[in-house]
Each structure stands twice: as C-alpha cells, then as structure tokens.
Amino acid sequence: MNILKQAITIIFIFLFSYVQAQDSIYVRNMVNKLTSPKFWGRGYTKGGMQKTAIFLSEEFKRIGVKPTQQYFSFPVNTFSGKMFVSINGITLQPGKDYIVSNESSGLKEKTSLQKIDSLTFQAGNNLKVLFKDKLTWSVATDVSNSTTILINKKTVTHTPKEIIVDIENKFISNFEASNVLGFVKGTKYPDSVLLITAHYDHLGGMGKNTYFPGANDNAAGVATLLSLAKYYAKNPPTYSIGFICFAAEEAGLLGSKYFTENRLIPLKSIKFLINLDLVGTGESGMTVVNATVYPKAFAMLKAVNEAHNYLPKINSRGKAPNSDHYFFSENGVPAFFFYTQGGISAYHDIYDRPETLPLTKYNNLFKLIVGFNQKLMN
C-alpha cells in the first residue's frame, strides 16, 4: 500500500511539474508574440493596439474563456511618419541615440544650437535639445507648440553646434481602443467575483522603423493573466473569476478609469482584485501596492508565500496611483497591485525585450496567486 501511495505521489508530482513546464512555455510564447513587430509596441501607430485586442480576444476563445470587448476613445499624440535627427552632421538612431518628447509637435529645420547649460541647448523658440543619462519614453494625450529632442549623453561626444530635424507627428483627437474581458463563472457563488487585471498596451512606435517591445511592461503581466485564465477555465473555482486586459494604461490609466465609470461587472460584486504589471522578474521578490490599505489580505498573502517559499521577499507599499488597480480601490474595491524585482532594469525604452526577460519566478508567482485566491474564497 505504501508503495502504491508513493507511486501515486510521484506520478502526481511529475504531472504537476509537466503542467507547470507547459505553462512556462505558454507564457514565454505569449511574451514573444506580444512583443513582436506585428503588434508594433501595442500602441498608437500601425494599428498596434487594435491588432493586440483582436489577438487577446481570440486567445481567450482558444483557451475556453468567453471574451468581451469594451470600446472607448481618447486623444493621443503619435509619431508614425518621418523621424530624422542629426547633430554636427552625424545621423542619430531613434530610441537608441535620441527620443522625441511625447508631447512634441512635428518640425523640419536645420539650425545652430545655443548653449543654455551643460545639458540644455536651444534653437529658437520651437526647438529644445536636452542631454540625458537614460532615454525613457511615454504617451501624451495633447500636443505642444514646440519640439523637444532628448539625446543620450554617450552619443554626442563633441559640443553640439548644428542640428537637422525632420519629424512628423499626428495628433489623433479620437483614438479608438478597447478593454478585453474574459469570465469564468463560479461553481458555487457566481455573484462573488475575483478579478485579475493587466494592461496590454505599451508605447507603440516612434517613426517608421522603431518600436518599443514592452516585454516586462506589460507583456509579462498579460501572459501571466492568460495562463491564469487558462487554468481557471479548466478548473472553475467556487467564486467567479474575471480577467481584464486594459488598454491605454500608458496614456494615464484611461482604460481602467473608463471601466469603473462604465461597469460591465458590478463593483460591489468584486471581492478582490489583483493587478499584474511588471511581473517578468522576481529574483529579488515582489512589492504589493495597497498592502498597508488592506493589512489582513496582505498578511494572508505573506502566509501563503512563507508556507511554500514562492518568492524570496514580499514588500509592503501603501496607496499609489501608478497602475490599473487605482480607480478600483478609489471606488471601494479591495485591490492589490503586484510588481516584481530583480533581473533587467529596462523600462519604457527599446531594451525591454523578450530575450532579456528572465521569467524565472513565473511558476512561483502563478502558484502564489492561485493559493491567495483560494484563501480569499475560503
């Protein structure tokens, strides 16, 4: 009998390890797809965000979760056309050597540069050049009357005297996007809902040849959400589980704000929300935003982690309006925002790539979330 039990245990461990290995492959494949040129940074040019929404909807269907899309629109400044900058006759590479400030207008000009200080140069009233240690980009929902070029300090070793700029911007007053939702109905308490959320948008592209892959931010979060949806579709829990991939987080949490104002799920039915953003690492642990706001839930999460040693450390952080959990907790929904530490430091730049994203703690983060959800349902 003992031999039989041991054999069953060994088989169970083998099968569980095999499933986890398969899930790791699935998550890696999802990250690779979401960061591919096809989706062009999941942003505002070349149809990147719209193509991603269609892909996510189809993926929900494929793994057995019925999808819904929630459409909305907002203004955004984009750069889909010409993108040329040279300093002292040397052509610079967008993303690597320079970026255009997100609210900049287009400009075509050849002019001399006037030094303001060691890091700032001016060319008339409409062009400013700033030298930076690190180039990070973002998204603007309006456009200014001037152009600002941010240049990597390591690129230009001589005093900049002349600049040639040929940049096209396009301001879209009514950019169309959609949140993508999936839902698994609970077996016992279908009106009680746990939510898993992650934003699928990133920064898109700058010019015709440069895009920002956004592997950690936030292909990793979306891939983890999809793996959880896949798991719960096969193993429906007592509570219902909702999955929301938000658009327009990078433009100011616009997708999640829109959802809380135009609710497809009654907020009072949401018992807890876990938002996943920047979860592709974990070697140094994880931080939980809103931990001090919901201390009992945080203590429960830490207990699950310590019982299994999933992550080396879980750090507590207070309230912060830095991701899609924010408008939910502001509307009375208990919510945590998880982000991991360690590994790569790339953020909002062209170096946030899938090939450098470790995903070393994905399996343990997955188990932690499932274990925490089970505690919440109990």
Automatic annotation (TrEMBL):
One of its GO terms (biological process) is proteolysis. Coiled coil: none annotated. InterPro entries: M28_fam (IPR045175), Peptidase_M28 (IPR007484). This is M28 family peptidase. It holds the Pfam family Peptidase_M28. Residues 179-369 form the Peptidase M28 domain. SUPFAM superfamilies: Zn-dependent exopeptidases (SSF53187). GO terms for molecular function: metalloexopeptidase activity.
